[in-house]
Design goal:
Blueprint lengths: L6 H15 L6 E5 L19 E17 L2 E14 L4 E6 L11 E5 L12 H9 L8 H8 L6 H16 L4 E3 L2 H13 L10 E4 L2 E5 L3 E9 L4 E4 L4 H4 L2 E3 L8 E2 L4 E5 L7 E12 L5 E4 L6 E6 L1 E13 L5 E8 L4 E8 L5 E5 L2 E5 L3 E8 L5 E7 L5 E7 L47 H28 L4
Parallel strand pairs: 8-17
Antiparallel strand pairs: 1-24, 2-3, 2-5, 2-6, 3-4, 4-16, 5-15, 7-9, 9-13, 10-12, 10-14, 11-13, 14-17, 15-16, 18-19, 19-22, 20-21, 20-23, 23-24
Length: about 475
């Protein structure tokens, strides 16, 4: 699994980035609503909001040794970098040592309770480490003096910090290869104290509201650490007449933390759904978790430039009947996904979820937890009357992978892959080029197999239809 990043792999990143662009950060929601008492959803993604980013790789690192099953595995340890959608850079450390990353994986800023940190009693100590070590403390002589390590470089400071984090995030038996980095790891581990989870860079609460045409739907409350956010009205506002206002009906184009926003819907508006967006440029708080949109090693933020952060919410309205607002979020404590439906209409809203029918009375809210296995991708569809359908997809990644199987022997001083995960290679002459923990070289093969299966499936359907069309019983 250790391999140098070649020119061809760089070209593949362009394809991966293009494919990743069509992925929705966090929970993807695509729905449609048609008929009396329903509305047409526009497919706006629902997610907690914040920064969405693409993994660039491990940029500042040194060596470490992981001890598992009586064997030693050499691996790089240090800082990853991510490029934020819309502008900005993030620096992160890994908090799942055995879980591989994927090249150019898409990540979304995520609350702790929707990652392995939610059940980790030492999560607060990890944040303390981040705030008291590199790169937050970039005065390396001062850091070395405080920790009593001797001279530190950016690489050894990053490695020592990552090793200390792994000891708390994965309960890993891991040491830094460099003596000064190991002393830093020990000092950070022994000095760490509990710190609270940082607040999100930007969210809208709730992510969906509903009500009657002629009303103001809301409130949708802005939560942010930015000084100001820009409010974007619905894309088809000129057609529907829907405006984003405050509670008194005054149009709102900018907002701050705590601002309450409303969808002001004209009384003659046809039944429908619209979305509002908010955006800001801010530094994402240190300690925020970043989870992969697809299965990829969970990260925790160590530093942020001024970055673009966004959030969106939807409003659904109708003149009569059931008027649903549906959201979904991961529930790591219960091992599943919470699907929450609020019905602000005057008739019950009945929908089908995983083959089970549920009914939400007028003026009521119901949350259904859909069980999902750890590390499993989920695809949850809600079906209701009059053509209503809403789909949520994602990956439930709520725990660290744990101890892998036996580690391969180390035939030389060069790192080599572990049989159950491992890391990409760091050659002895490396000066900081890309090396990604657990980067998967199997991705093109898997994609090729998937495409082949789609083609074969399409061919099978074609021939079956052709056969049925020629049958005299048809």
């Amino acid at each position: 699994m250790f391999s140098a990043i070649s020119a061809s792999s760089v070209r593949r990143r362009g394809t991966a980035r293009l494919a990743a662009a069509v992925l929705v950060s966090g929970l993807v929601a695509v729905g449609s609503l048609a008929g009396a008492g329903t509305a047409a959803a526009d497919g706006t993604p629902q997610h907690p909001g914040g920064a969405a980013a693409t993994l660039d790789g491990l940029k500042t690192y040194d060596g470490a040794v992981l001890h598992t099953n009586g064997k030693d595995q050499q691996l790089p340890a240090g800082l990853f970098e991510m490029t934020v959608d819309g502008g900005g850079k993030l620096k992160t450390y890994c908090i799942d040592i055995h879980n591989p990353t994927q090249e150019q994986a898409k990540y979304q800023e995520t609350p702790w309770d929707q990652t392995s940190l939610g059940a980790n009693k030492n999560a607060g100590k990890i944040r303390w480490i981040l705030e008291h070590s590199y790169p937050q403390v970039d005065d390396l002589p001062a850091l070395a003096a405080a920790a009593g390590t001797g001279p530190l470089t950016e690489k050894t400071a990053a490695a020592g910090t990552q090793v200390a984090i792994w000891r708390y995030s994965d309960d890993a038996d891991v040491d830094a290869s460099d003596p000064q980095a190991e002393k830093l790891a020990d000092w950070l581990e022994n000095s760490a104290q509990d710190s609270a989870e940082p607040k999100a860079s930007l969210t809208l609460e709730p992510g969906a509201v509903s009500g009657r045409a002629g009303e103001r739907l809301g409130p949708v409350t802005v939560r942010t650490d930015a000084d100001s956010v820009t409010v974007t009205p619905p894309a088809d506002a000129s057609v529907t007449g829907v405006r984003i206002t405050d509670k008194d009906g005054t149009p709102v184009t900018t907002a701050a933390n705590g601002t309450e926003l409303y969808f002001d819907v004209p009384s003659d508006a046809s039944d429908g759904t619209a979305s509002l967006g908010v955006q800001a440029t801010t530094s994402v708080p240190v300690g925020r978790a970043f989870a992969g949109v697809t299965k990829s090693q969970t990260q925790i933020l160590a530093g942020s430039s001024d970055s673009t952060v966004t959030a969106a919410a939807t409003g659904t309205w109708a003149k009569q009947g059931a008027i649903p607002a549906v959201t979904a979020e991961k529930n790591c404590a219960e091992g599943g996904v919470d699907v929450t439906t609020t019905n602000t209409g005057d008739e019950p809203f009945t929908f089908e979820l995983k083959g089970v029918e549920h009914t939400v009375a007028p003026g009521s809210t119901e949350t259904v937890t859909v069980p999902v296995g750890e590390d499993e991708a989920y695809d949850i569809t809600i079906n209701g009357p009059a053509g209503f359908t809403q789909n949520f997809t994602g990956v439930l990644d709520c725990a660290t992978t744990g101890t892998p199987g036996p580690v391969t022997e180390q035939p030389s001083s060069q790192p080599s892959a572990a049989s159950a995960g491992g890391v990409t290679a760091v050659s002895s002459g490396s000066t900081g080029n890309l090396a990604e923990t657990g980067s998967s070289s199997a991705t093109p093969i898997i994609a090729g197999i998937a495409i082949a299966l789609v083609v074969l499936g399409g061919a099978a359907v074609f021939f079956l239809r052709k056969k049925n069309a020629s049958s005299p019983e048809e």
